[in-house]
Amino acid sequence: MPKENYHQKRVAFGNTLRLLRDQAHYMDKRMSGDDLVRLINHKLRISLNRPDNSEWETAKTIPPPPIFCALLEIYTFQNILKTWDAVQDLITHYIEVATDYTLKNVTFDEATFNHWQAIRQALFNHAPEHILSDNTLYGVDAILDIQSNALLEKKHKNRAISFEGEGGLGKTSLAVSLAIRLGQLGIFEGIYFMGLRHSYMNLQGIKEHSEEQIETLDSALLQLASQIGISIEQRLSQKEKLGIIADYYHNHPILIILDNLETQADVIAYQPLIAKLLAVESASRLIITSRYQTSLLIPAIPLTVTVDELDKINAHATLRKYKFNGTQEQAFAIHNYIGGNPLALRLTMNLVQVYNIAPTLQLLEKKKSDLQGNIYEFREELFKYLYEKTLESLDEPIQDLFICMGLFCAMEEGATLDKIRKRAMQPNIEAGLKQLMDFHLVSFNQSDEKYTMHRLTIYYIRKEFFGKSAEDFS
Amino acid sequence: MISPHKRSQYQQHALRILQEQVQTFASIQDNPQELMDELRYLFIGIDACPHDAIFIETRLQLINILKDMPVRYGMSDQWDDLTTYALQTTPSDDAYHLGLLHWIKAKIAYDRVQRQKARDWISTAWGYAHQSKNPKLIGDIAQTFCSSLVYHFGEHENAIDMIYQAKEAISELNTPVPYRLDISLADALRRLGKIWQARRILETMAEKWLTPHLPMREQAIILHNLGLMRWVDGAYATAQSNLQTAAHIYEDLHELATACGAYGDLGLCLWAWGKLQQAETVYNKAIRLAQKAGDAQREMKLHGNLGLVYMSKGRLDEAETYILAHIQRAETLDSPREVSRARGNLAQLAMYRGNPHNSLPYLQEALNAHQHPNEGRGNDLILVCICHLHLGNRDQALNYLHEAYKTCDEGEHTILPILVYRAAAECYPDQAEAHLTYALSLAKQYDRRLDMVGCLLKLAQICHNDDYRIQAHNLLQEMGAEAWLNYGEAPLLPLMI
User: Fold this and answer.
1) Is B2–A423 a contact, with Cβ atoms under 8 angstroms apart?
2) How far is it, in rounded angstroms, from Cα B84 to Cα A5?
3) Which has the least CB within 10 A, A187, B82, B259, B490?
4) Which of A199, A206, A219, A384 should be substituted to probe chain B, the one whose Cβ sees the most B Cβ atoms within 10 Å?
């Protein structure tokens, strides 16, 4: 090729790279050169600098084949390269200008293209997006920005993060938001969600301290393997099962959310898995949510974020989201009585809807003065009170529907309308569901058309039903 | 607060749901995915009124429906809870259900490799099974008991006794003995080296049970087990056909992991037979299936076996690559048993390369893992014998050789004697011709091609007989194993079952 012609092709190639990047996104913004370098570093576990990317785009240098392939993966995942023909054209262009390399160095073939297209479509199949459906979080953008970048930090030191705090604060929502934010970049092949409630709740929906926690982990490993799509025989030792999971975690960049470690016993039970994954050199990442301070038992977790209650400003914003039309002072008063737990705020809005603002404030003030004991007992009693007051305001058939859903419909995972209808006490449930949604007791997820309940809501129902008084009755 | 009246209404409602659900399970028992989806709903809120007589009865109905379904995968904890609660409410004179529930608890413990716990549960279940006089329960419990004794405790004789007791008890009830008991029995016998008896049992069983009317999956189970036994007994051609059919059926049924296992066994059969090219093809297919099924453990083992195929071909460098990968993968997957197995293979490789110095500890380790006089132990005895011989410890070598002879005498081995006589030819050079001639005749009888070549090359050297050499070269060419000719006039060819 004449030198002049070659130079033109090289400049054109640089421009193409620039054009592709301009169409790509990083989190919620257009992808910068820094962002792209961060993603490539993460994918290939290398340490490029910003100027490398500038040099490719200004045709000073040509990216080596592994980096070029990583770019193709990202742009295929982000659906900027929409067809295999488009990819082939780009590869042909690359081979023309990257004279040091041959076609065989470019390992991105049609199967790889299809693979990343498929990942784009299936990535969130196991991520509980419904958790976010009615649970917009306030005051967390900064946390998400900082922590998502921290997890992609250049030296790969931060391979895990733990969100810690009491129930109802939105730890799971934060974890899922973070996973979705990272997942949309095109650097993970799968997002998997392990809700410990599935493996650790007895038949009556009550959390127990099992004498044989090792089996709980064993079952969880089988469930995780099943989600990932790998096969593990039950008869293998736990060490072997962990080895297989860790091997996949090492070879495939994935995100695992380990949700809802509630107690010290939970952390002890899952410590072998967490420790094993932390020890793996990998582009995979682990996100944990816990009520217990995990770092006390697993100091190797590099990032820990304590999730606090909302301050009064964000509490007010949250109330407004639920159509609170009172004054700022009234919102601050609510915050003063019940604190800034987002779920408690949401439930309080039910009282506001039923009683109006001023009487609600009186009720809350009285309740606060009645409730003695430590902060944890206060929280538990507060939630119970808010649920009870909300239920009181519902008609009996709707109360029945609410109880039946919590008892019989596996609402943690979500239940379809058909499933709820089969398990409710009467067939006409649409109006009841609407009211339960208006009262924020039930959420609906458009993408899989399933109804869900917050975990604390389900606990409330099951505890009411199976608690001490129920035993006396039985 | 839920009022007592309302609570009672919810409990009655819960009962109705449970009863309806129990009725629908029977219709979806052949669809594991649908079953699992339904179970997820069923297990939540199931104990709404645990002391109600109707609930207790319905729960037993549910357990009866689910007892043969694969609920243990992913639902093991809930299944365990359900059985535990049911045990607490089952009357002491209900031998059938007490047997059934103890058996389920035993199976859960067995799956979790809780050896003693499984044994305790199954022993109790066995007592109830006899009292119940229910032939199906007796058969099911005997099978689990047999597996526990064989795989957890190595008590093969007790396992055989147990199966015979079960067969007798079932026959006394004028009921056909289920074929799975024969599979368990044959397995225990094989592990004691009683290959002839084991094969007879399976041949008779297959003749009786294997009909086109039997569901395809059941056919595959019988063919798979029969194929394995025929392979061990050196009936390679029929074993190949059985294993191939079984693998195809599993594949058609989309049971990829099981299909992959059957293809792996087919690969072993072809390899032992000396059909090395075909073995390579089958292993590559099995590896692809393992990848598709996401079965990293099986994929690792298959790579190790492919290494053995290359070893048999004399392509020792490639064999080494695969065996080292096997070791590395086994270490990554935290599987000490496989690490040990792969190191044993590497030790063999070093020996065939004429470098046995580091081999002995690994071969000895493999031998120590085989305590029963079966073909596995016999094979390891031969390898340790040859290793000692190459290290100049002739007396030690002879001790191991004699134990291998004894193993042949005590058992009912068909292939092991070939290896023993080949090893004897190495240990007793002055009697080598006689030993090799006999080994060759046995190898021809079973069409063991690599053994035939091993004998022919040595005989050609000893007897200065070019016909032997030509026959050996032709066979090597046919097997794609000409690489052995690079290792001298009469190299020691692999001694493997």
Assistant:
1) no
2) 79
3) B490
4) A219
Q: Give per-residue pLDDT as tens, B203-233.
A: 999 999 999 999 999 999 999 999 999 999 9
Q: Which residues pair with A103 in a beta bridge?
A: none
Tell whether B335 lies on the interface with A, counting CB pairs under 8 A: yes
DSSP symbol at A129: T
Q: Residue B412: pLDDT above 70? A: yes
Q: What is the pLDDT of residue B176?
A: 92
Query: Which is it for the CA torsion B433, B435, B439, B442, positive or negative?
Result: positive
Token pair belonging to A205? 């929906």
Is B373:B411 a contact under the CB 8 Å cutoff? yes
Distance CA B22, CA B12 (A): 15
For residue A154, count other CB atoms closer than 10 A to its CB.
14
| Per-position DSSP letters for B142-178, written without gaps between them | HHHHHHIIIIIT--HHHHHHHHHHHHHHHHHTT-PPP
Contacts with A, B 40-69, CB within 8 Å: 40-41, 43-51
- Gap between the Cα atoms of A448 and A450, Å rounded: 6
Phi first, then psi: give them for residue B354, nearest 5 degrees. Answer: 80, 25
Instruction: Mark out the alpha helices in B373-448 (DSSP H runs).
Output: 375-390, 394-410, 416-427, 432-446
Residue of B nearest to A229 (CA): B294
**What span, in angstroms and rounded, lies between the C-alpha atoms of A166 and B174?**
64
Q: Quick one: pLDDT band at residue B5, thresholds 50, 70, 90?
A: confident
Provide the chain B residues 252-271 that lie in CB contact (below 8 A) with chain A.
256-257
Specify the DSSP element, H or E, that contains A331: helix A328-338
Q: Is A410 in contact with B2 (Cβ distance < 8 A)?
A: no
Average pLDDT over residues A155-168: 86
Q: Which residue of A has its CA nearest to B39?
A: A410
Do B297 and A247 make contact, defined as CB atoms within 8 angstroms? no
CB within 8 Å of A438: residues ≥ 6 apart: A353
Judging contacts by C-beta atoms under 8 Å, the chain A residues touching residue B250 are none
Coil, strand, or helix at residue A289? Answer: strand
Please tell me the predicted confidence (pLDDT) of residue A384: 87
Is A230 in contact with B111 (Cβ distance < 8 A)?
no
Proportion of chain B in helix, strand, coil states, percent, rounded to 5: 80, 0, 20
Res B239: pLDDT: 97
**Residue in chain B lying closest to A224 (CA):** B74
Q: Which of A242, A246, A408 sits opposite B45 (nearest CB)?
A: A408
Strand partners, A261: A290
Chain A residues in contact with B72 by the CB 8 A cut-off are 234
In sequence order, the β-bridge partners of residue B485 are: none
B294 vs A: CB within 8 A: yes
Length of chain A: 474
Indicate the residue of A223, A237, A410 with minimum beta-carbon distance to B41: A410
- Chain B partners of A248 at a C-beta cutoff of 8 Å? 294, 296
Question: Over the Cα atoms of chain B, what is R_g?
Answer: 27
The whole-angstrom separation of Cα B233 and Cα B228 is 9
Classify the complex by whether its ipTM is higher than 0.90, answering yes or no. Answer: no
pLDDT of residue A366 exceeding 80, the answer is yes
Tell me the pTM: 0.80
B84 reaches A (C-beta below 8 A): no
The pLDDT-based confidence of A131 (bands split at 50, 70, 90) is: low
In chain A, pLDDT over 90 holds for what percent of residues? 45
